[in-house]
Amino acid sequence: MEHDLVLEGRVVVPAGPWDAEVGVTDGIIEEIGHGLKGSRRIRAEGCLIFPGFIDIHVHLREPGWERKEDFRTGTMAAIHGGVTTLADMPNNPTPATTVEALALKARLAEAKALVGVVFYGGVAADDPERLVKLSGRVSAYKLYMSETTGAEAFPAGGLPRVFRLVARTGKPLSIHCEDQAIIDEASRAVDMSGPDAYCDLRSPRSEAEAVAGVVRGLRGERGLTANVCHASLGETLSLVEGARREGLRLSCEATLHHAYFSRKAMLDNPLLRTNPPLRGEEDREALVHGVRDEKVSFLVTDHAPHLLEEKEEGGLAGVPGLDDYSHVATWLMKSEGVHPTTIAKVASANPARYLRLGDRGEVAPGKRADFTVIDLHASETVKNDDVRSRAGWSPYDGREFPGRARWVIYGGDVLMDDFEFVR
């Protein structure tokens, strides 16, 4: 049998990486083995062939903030970073809390997106019952416990009701865990003159208390699958682990920037303001260990693009990240001892399972032919000029990474070929 494409290299499967060939026909993985024939062959000797990376936490900004990003530029950044599927968050100027808003997003993505895009439905504070009507259009729901870009804080007292409603849909719920009352209290006491004072405004306590509240709520709704967004504390990982021991369906994600940077970096680069903020070195190390030990379920970007002048003049929270997914993934493998099979879990298999995308997330016969091929020896220094996101800058500008994505394939179509964009 001659395949449309044969990809050869070190294939990352659950049992571990092994040298093999992957045969692709009509956008589907047909077989894995040796001696396969194909009309096109990609020789990726020395590279790791991962299932396409899936980022479950992305803000593509469209509609409403197209000056920052849209579905075309955001998915170009995704390809650059090796991401073949992403989940778009609901906090746009017109929040994705209605059927109409989600239908518009879907039309825009279909016309512009270059990789797979699925959607979160927002939980409206003024009418949480509305979320049930969205279930056919979303892969998951998102709830904000604190104010952030384009979103109001959901009252903590309403969590049990929302948990029951989301559980009825059978979809998972991702939660931004920062306690707004604690932030408001800190705003009256914190001296904001220092370059890293924002880290005290949105304190570790605000996150830990919010996560603890989520755990208490889940005890009353054990049918719900929930995820703590952008965990920034070792304490958060401990709370999530404890919840799992109780049999609760709770996971957590770590962002690239929380794993790579500590609070100290803000002294030199105020552009690193994020929600939640960067934490101390001990917490940063705890996140990396959490990825390595698989206490963290998802590696995400929390891609939150703002134009450089908006960051410099307005102090907005959020950083772009899609362009640099494979950079940080290779750093985790080569510098921090994270095994490739673990990267395959946190970047592909676990996200696919969470979003109920059963056709992807693993290099196996019958799955979509989505691949992220990483060259661990192609070191690169990040430059703002190379960024594909409309934001036009990277928080990693000037940083050298040990490797990056070399080929990116989506549904059998080669989107990046030997580091070069095909389209």
What is this structure, in a nutshell?
The chain is of the alpha/beta class and 423 residues long. Helix content is 30%, strand content 24%. α3 links the parallel β10 and β11.
Give an overview in words.
The protein is α/β, with parallel strands linked by helices. The chain has two domains: 2-49 and 367-379 and 398-421, Urease, subunit C, domain 1 (Roll); 53-354, Alpha-Beta Barrel (TIM Barrel). The chain is 30% helix and 24% strand. It has helices at 71-81, 99-112, 159-169, 180-187, 198-201, 204-219, 234-245, 256-260, 281-292, 308-314, 325-336, 340-354; strands spanning 2-3, 5-13, 16-25, 28-33, 37-38, 41-51, 53-58, 83-88, 116-122, 140-144, 173-176, 226-228, 250-255, 298-300, 371-375, 380-381, 400-401, 404-410, 413-417, 420-421. An eight-stranded mixed beta sheet has the order 4-3-2-6-15-18-19-20. Strands 7-8-9-10-11-12-13-14 form an eight-stranded parallel beta sheet. The protein has a two-stranded parallel ribbon with strand order 1-5. Strand 18 and strand 19 (413-417) form a beta hairpin. The longest helix is centred in the middle third of the chain and has 16 residues, at 204-219. It is globular and about 65 Å long. It starts with a strand and ends with a strand.
